[in-house]
Amino acid sequence: MALQVGIVGAGRAATRRARQLEAYSDVRITAVADPNRPARDAFASTFGPELSVSDYNRLVLDESVDLVLIASPPPTHSAIALAAFEVGKHVICEAPISTTVSDAREMIKASQESSGRFFVSLPQRYDPVSQEALRLIDNDELGYVYLATGSLIRNDYDRLNDWHDWKGTWDKGGGGILMECGSEMIDLYHYLIGEIAAVSAICTRFAIEPLHKAEDSCLLGLEFLDDISAELALTGAARFSAWPPDYSGSAMHMEVYGLEGALRITSPPSRLSVSLKGGRTYELSAEDIKTDQPTDMLRDFLDCIFEDRDPLVHAGHALTALTVLLAAYKSSQMKRRVELLEEV
Known about the structure:
Layout: E1 3-8, H1 12-21, E2 27-33, H2 37-47, E3 51-53, H3 56-61, E4 67-70, H4 77-86, E5 90-93, H5 101-112, E6 118-120, H6 128-138, E7 145-154, H7 157-161, H8 170-173, H9 177-192, E8 196-204, E9 217-224, E10 229-235, E11 250-258, E12 261-267, E13 271-276, E14 280-285, H10 297-307, H11 315-334, E15 338-339
Parallel strand pairs: 1-2, 1-4, 2-3, 4-5, 5-6, 7-10
Antiparallel strand pairs: 7-11, 8-9, 8-15, 9-10, 11-12, 12-13, 13-14
Helix pairs in contact: 4-5, 5-11, 9-11
């Protein structure tokens, strides 16, 4: 029997996930909930769910829904997940897991007390390029790793500059580019480098005019428990970019430096560039890499439900990323270094 999915949200994230789900023969999209009637109607017209409602509670309680996929703004994630766990539904939540550590912990606790499974979208761990980078680091092929740098850029300039759009607002969006995209990049640093101990950050509206919007760009300095340093830059206002050559509104890169080599991850397309001691250099695409780990995040989540096993990424990783993210906001607001042991 197909797993019946109800999607909360009808925007770009929901549409992207729905198109992915359509490829699976053992999944059926049965419901959508979104208070935005035009967006909901457009989604329903495209994907054909039997139930199309404004209130997520109706979707959660409907018997046609086994799995609730949360693709709504971050401040709504906690309430939707808690409602789903209360009635034993499975949950897939887009990152960030929530906007506060207390809400995230409550979500995890509720999932542990429910018959429903809990999954949070952190796709970088499923990229074969990231998995190969971790193998190189773990096998000491880079030697002692001492530094990492990276960036994530997006072109949401028009939406962020729209006074009436919720994107980038504190109340409806939960924050700016750091809240929207920070979890994914922070988790990649955690995956490849290790536990983050402290953060220093500058989060500012450099390019966006509406005064009620949060940061459009930020710069993070990360300190790891293993005395490794890193920096991470994010912007949602990148209308132009010198890389990649076919930039279409979203791109990321990360570089890791060791005493005997270095590597660079770029996307899109997903590629790994490696330079090792002795002058050996090479490049790999995701298709070139052989891995025994899952590389399709949604498929892994679904199989964990069908097979009753654990996923490659779990909610604890999302909680860790959120903790770093909120520490960065605190650092920027207080203009000082913040240790992760502090309350955020």
